[in-house]
Amino acid sequence: MSEPLSLKAYAKVNLGLDVVRRRDDGYHEVRMIMQTIRLFDRITLQKNSSGKITLSTNLPYLPVNEHNLVYRAIDIMRRHYHIKDGIHADINKRIPVAAGMAGGSTDAAAAFVGMNQMFELGISQDTLMKYAVSLGADIPFCIMRGTALSEGIGELLTPLAPMPECWFLVVKPVFSMSTKYVYENLVLNQDTIHPDIDGMVEALDRGDLKGITSRMGNVLEQVTRMHYPDIEKIKDCMHEFGAEEALMSGSGSTVFGIFINRGKAEKAADACRSRFAIRQVAIIRPFNKPASVSRRKIHGT
Fold first, then answer.
1. Which one from 41, 107, 138, 230 is the annotated catalytic residue?
2. Mean pLDDT per 10-residue run, the chain (301 residues)?
3. Domains in the chain with CATH codes
4. Which of 12, 172, 235, 264 is catalytic?
5. Among residues 210, 300, 205, 296, which one has the least CA distance to residue 259?
6. Is 12 designated active site?
7. Does the pTM exceed 0.90?
8. Catalytic annotation on 172?
């Protein structure tokens, strides 16, 4: 057997999530600011002579067959590049599952990148992202990483200036949300409060943390707060201990707060643990790439 290849699969949060409209094909058109954070799963790939794809994971309830995005990413690469070797992938999960943090998507992204490295295929990042979008709209961003404007159904990506230095407190409540349910129950009308995505892009350009946090918003919260009032209570708890702002990520149920001071983030984390019986908590930095010289759009299709 070959030497294993180990990769970090980083989580994301949505600094801003706006849903523009529901399209005729049933998909929703979005405008989002995506941010990679330094919370990660560990994906380890190893070649073997079995000719098969096999998976293992530290969480017994995760699928270890073709229903797992890692399996499907490896399968796409094997078929496109006529790879006969077997591949074993071990998935060590630290990102909360079904939490609005692209945990499954980023694992698949790591599998695409890892297959490219392991077999020295020399595939460009743009090409990898085009393969990836067939599995999910978040996967191209998880390959690209950093800070980006996401449009269309999430497949049109524009790299943005990096997030200013700060601390993210990430809290996963005991309940989870179905992305499908949240979008199906979203009502867009004249009362919908849309986050200022363009203003946030400008604040990122200036490196203005308060300008960013003052524009944070997620239209999907209107659905989740009706069923899970703890979302708002967790946000209030973070504000109480000095968060610049707090928000639900994606379709939930993860809530994150942005802090200038790590000490305040730690106090907020302790309060969330005790008040809401929360076990999945992390305090981490943003994962930043250098500011992009070119603001070209990257099409995932």
1. 138
2. 91 94 75 97 97 97 96 97 97 93 96 97 95 92 96 89 97 86 80 91 98 96 87 96 96 94 98 93 92 52 47
3. 5-160 (3.30.230.10), 167-284 (3.30.70.890)
4. 12
5. 210
6. yes
7. yes
8. no
